[in-house]
Here is the input.
Amino acid sequence: MAYPEHTSIADAIKRYHLPESHRVKWSRNRKANVVRAVHDDALSFREARDLYLLSQSEFEQWEQQFGVSDQRARSLEVA
Here is the structure.
């Protein structure tokens, strides 16, 4: 669980305007919201993967599309 104990996955979905299931048209905004939620630790990658049927490579493509993967790699190098 990536989010704080007092927060549920439903709260994270509402706060980040995430779809409730994988059965949606994946617009640019929806992809960006999922990437942002994972990077803000509101949702773990595992939860996003299970909820939206994402593969690791698909999520990495979304990260690259929104310029987040390089930022994450740099933050991991510093830590």
Remarks:
- Residues 31 and 62 are 7 Å apart (CA to CA).
- The chain has one domain: 9-78.
- Confidence is low (pLDDT under 50) at residues 73-79.
